Structure formats: structure tokens, C-alpha cells
Amino acid sequence: MKKISSLKISISGVRGIIGDSLTPQLAGALAQAFGTYVGGGPVIVGRDARPSGRMILQAVISGLLSSGCQPVDVGICPIPSFLFLAKDSRSSGGIAVTASHNPKEWNGLKFISRDGLYLTPHQVEEFLDIYHQGDFTYAGPDRLKILRSEPQPVEPHLKKLLGYFNADLIRRKKFKVALDCGNGAGAILAPRLLQELGCEAVVINAVPDGSFAHQSEPLPENIREICRTVVKSRADIGFVQDADADRLAVVNDKGQPLGEELTLALAAQYILGKKKGSVVCNLSTTRAIDDIAAARKAPVFRTKIGEINVVEKVLSAEPAAVIAGEGNGGVILPEIHPCRDSFAGIGLILEYMAASGRTISALQKRVPRYVMIKDKIEGSAEQGYRLVSLLKKRYEGQGRTSLLDGLKIDFPDHWIHVRPSNTEPIIRIISEARTESVAKAAIRRLKIEIAELKNKI
Q1: Over the chain, what is the mean pLDDT?
Q2: I want to staple 88 with a disulfide (CB 3.0 to 4.6 A). Which of 156, 175, 244, 351 is the partner?
Q3: How many domains does the chain have?
Q4: Residue 117's domain is classified under what CATH number?
Q5: Is 62 considered catalytic here?
Q6: Long-range contacts: 233-236, Cβ < 8 Å, 24+?
């Protein structure tokens, strides 16, 4: 098969493999284009903990300086805190050096607006036009700014979190919490948050040096160490963060991983029991969200995959969204900040346990049970869209079809979703059903059909 470039440019930013598709030269040029786009002023810059981050960050700083911006270096910083700071500090925007959950050979750039949000598809198009045309602003010697640093970048975010949650209620419970930061940026804030909430924290992999103790994506097969830690320490709950701390996975008090999908489901179940409003999530998020919302007569709005797509709907939803996110462990609590935030997820679930008086395994049983199977095949975005077109014809008249993002078909007892990834050169294949056998059968059928259709591409 023809080799597919690892460089991915999308609404999720730019990602690539260090020394292959992502180089300091590329990072510097993109930063200069971004500096031109925002028109100067202070720009927050920071990174996750992966080893290549320092090199790429220096290139970003150079690109911003050359365009007349003033970079404000926050160092290693969790992306939710970074986004909060970008808005709180009234900057012109921000560039975060991170590849989120991708393996450590990857890195990337996320571009942030002055509102502390990822760029919208329209803004990305405008920014990339400047990059492709090479029409950059060049600052002369008299316009070059001085690099500044922000020594306490997480403080505004932490203050907001502690002001939102019922910290006194959580403190009275004195929960024992096992925490796996994955040696990522979450280690900068998560242990401190637990301390402020009166928890006894049993922390592993909390050195933010990017030496991933396991694959950063917090899937059940990648988090066995924290499962053992929960059992050994007799913890009430376990939490796992990905490399930049926007995603959260949960382990129950029996040492069993709940699966990423239940993070948002638990958060929604708690919030909708307290407040009236809507839920916003993407097409690939579990059907349990619909069941939870229906029981409380709350509308659910589904969007294309990609955090900014969810956020844009959050900002316009009527009735207002009280909880949002993605089924990959990304919880968005709009009252804190409209972004995926593992720290907000931690606070919500601890407060849910404290307010209900129930264990996390008991709360887990109250969530409607579904089994989701996620698979993937190698393929470019172009190949993915061709497959979607062919599959649409094959499934015509079957189920409720959505072409909002790839192809999703809802059947009475299951659903399937096929789409090109925004962040990797792969085509994602997902199915969910009440039983594992039905979900697996749907995936097997899809993969056979895709293999047949690939011959027609």
C-alpha cells in the first residue's frame, strides 16, 4: 500500500511525526502565519510533556517574535488550563505544542483564539490561507518584543474549579483517589486539585517528562497499572488522564475500567439531575446519553467530531447546554469553560459520589449499558470519503442515515459510524449495541464490505 503522510492539518490543529512530517521549520512558519493572522499582541505559548516539545516550542516562539507578537511562555501546562488562561489573560490567542493522546513520536500545534477556544473551521481556513500564501508580517528590529513567561499558568483555572464545585461536601467524604497522570501535563495540576478537595491521593506516573509509562490514549488496555493500584490501595476511585489532560478515564472501586464513554455519561447523569438544559455531544458518543437525557426530558444535540464543533453548538444551543463533550473521555462543563477538561470531569464525578452517597461502581450501574467497539483501518481522508460514498449506496434505505461526518446509520438495536480521522491517517469504524455480540458482528460485516469496496477505489 502507498505510504500515507503522517502530517495531519485539520480543525484539531496540526499533527505529525517528529523528524518526518513535523519539523521546527514547519512549526516556525505556522507560528509566523498565526502571528500575522492575529495581528500582533501577546500570544500564550506552552506545551505538553513529550520530549520533542521544547524543540518545537522554541520554533513557535521564534515564528511569533518574527511576526511582531509577544510570546508568553507558560511551559508545560494542561490544555484545559491553557485555554482558560488564554481567555482570562485577554491575549490575542495561543499556540499549544501537543499531540494530545498520540504516541510520543508525534507532536503538534493547536491554535487558540482570543476567546480561549480552538479556531473554528472558517478561522482555520483564513489562517491557513496566510500560511500557504506565505504572506507573513515581518517585524523590524524596533518592533521585536521581549519573550515573557507566566510562572503560575494553572491558578486561574484552579480557582474557577474550586469555586464551582461543592468542595466542602467532597472534603467531608475524605475519598481515597488513585491517579495516573501518564507522566503528562496533567501532573502539573491534578494532584493539587485532589489535595484541595481533601482527597487522599495515590499518585502514579506524575513526573511530567513525557516518558509515557503506557500509551497515552486512556483506553482500558492501556491503564492496567492504575487498575492494580486501585485494588492494592483500596481506593474509592481511579482517574487517568491523557498527555495534555483534556481526556479522562475512570476506574471503579473494584479496579475495573469503566471505558471512556462512561466518563461523559456519568457527568451528564449528575448534571441533568440538578439542572435543566440541553446536552451537546458528537455523533460517535454513546447512545446512553440519549437515554439519560430522555429520562429527564432534556434535548440532545449531536455534532461532527472535533471539539470545536461541539463547542460551537454549546455556544448557540437553545435551551442552553448544561453539559457537553465527546465519548473519548472529554467532558465539557460550559460554566467553567467550553473546552474538554479532565479536571472538571474529576470534580463532577467526585461531587456526584459525595452528593449521592454511592460508590462509583454503584453509580456505574445506573448508566444504561451499551457495548461500543472501535476499530480502524489505514487510509487517507480521500480514501475515507470515497468509502463513505460507496457505503452510503450499499446501505441506502436501511436505518436512519446521517452524513454530517462520514456515514452514521442508526438501526433499532445498534448503530455504525465510518469516517476519516481528523488527527491520524486512518479511517475510524465504530459500532455500538446493547450486547457485545451484536456490536462485534456489525464491525465484522463493515470490515468485509470495506475490503470489497477498496477494490473499486
Answers
A1: 94
A2: 156
A3: 3
A4: 3.40.120.10
A5: no
A6: 233/176, 233/178, 233/202, 234/176, 235/176, 235/177, 235/178, 235/202, 236/175, 236/176, 236/177, 236/353, 236/359, 236/360
